[in-house]
Write a structure and sequence with these properties.
Number of helices: 2
Oligomer: single chain
Helix content: over 70%
Shape: rod-shaped
Largest sheet: none
Order of helices and strands: HH
Length: 47
Amino acid sequence: MFAEVVVGPPRAKLAPVDDLHRAVPAVQDRVQDRSRRHAETDDYHIG
């Protein structure tokens, strides 16, 4: 999903990587919320 950010000249990708780092905590929060909700409802099992 993040292949474009990793591949290519580092200087050209600095801004997108910065944006990505800024976005990561929000994404992690969303994932944790989803996991918590699934754990509470017991509707979803991993593995």
